Amino acid sequence: MIAVRRTYLPKPGTGGKLAALVNEAGAAMEAAGYKKPTVYKGWHGSHGMLQTEQLWDSIADYEASRSAVRKTPGITSIFDQIYPLLAETHNTEIFEVTG
Question: Which InterPro entries match (predicted)?
């Protein structure tokens, strides 16, 4: 099993809207049959930072989902609204779950 973590840093003044859209994107992923990501709000570091964590059975399953998600308008339309709010491109980290 793997955990995919993404970190989002909003432009100043856009944190509330970013948080709402990231949660909306998670609900859209769940509606499309994917595991809903957990959303974390940072209490340290950059102001307004959000992190999501989504579990996958394997890296192959995660990679296959990426193509499918890009073809799902209900998800991509939300990310089209998220990207302009970001101070920089989101950071993605992938961890192997060992315990």
Answer: Dimeric_a/b-barrel (IPR011008)
Beta carbons of 87 and 18 less than 8 angstroms apart: no
What's the CATH number where 55 sits? 3.30.70.100
Name, in order, each residue with C-beta under 8 angstroms of 47's C-beta and a sequence gap of 6 or more.
12, 15
Model pLDDT for residues 3-54, shown as the tens digit of each residue = 999 999 999 999 999 999 999 999 999 999 999 999 999 888 888 999 999 9
Handedness of CA 59, 65, 70, 73 (dihedral sign): negative
Q: What is the pTM of this model?
A: 0.91
